[in-house]
Amino acid sequence: MEIETLNASNLPWVEFEFELQELRGVSSVYGDGLSFDQRNVGSAHIDSDTFATHDRKFEPYDRLLFQSGTVDANLSVSFRLLITDLTPKPVFYLVQDPRIPAS
Asked: Is residue 82 part of a domain?
């Protein structure tokens, strides 16, 4: 999956997190089969044109945190993700959470 996101806020984004959810508002659990390419450690299928690093957390939720970069206001960032679903459901959710600098 390729995602391009515009920072339409007035603040820079210093991190960007994605979370998979099979049920809206409920964090993914082990048994739902959703993950960010969990079977491949060090996956080459996950990257960003702006953030240099990423960290995957698999349990008790499936989150992908991009770090080591900044997206200034009115600029775009691109992400490339591989989402696997070993027990496919017709609908799942990808929550996007841009992070701003803490003061």
From this structure: yes
From the number of C-beta atoms within 10 Å of its C-beta (0-12, 13-18, 19+), residue 15 rates as buried
pLDDT in tens, 45-69: 899 999 999 998 877 788 999 999 9
- 7 within a domain of the structure (yes/no): yes
Global pTM?
0.89
Amino acid at residue number 69: G
Spatial distance between the Cα atoms of 90 and 12, rounded to a whole number of angstroms: 35
R_g over Cα of the chain = 14
- Note down the domain range covering 75: 2-87
Domain count of the fold of the chain: 1
> Is the sign of the CA dihedral 38, 51, 22, 100 positive or negative?
positive
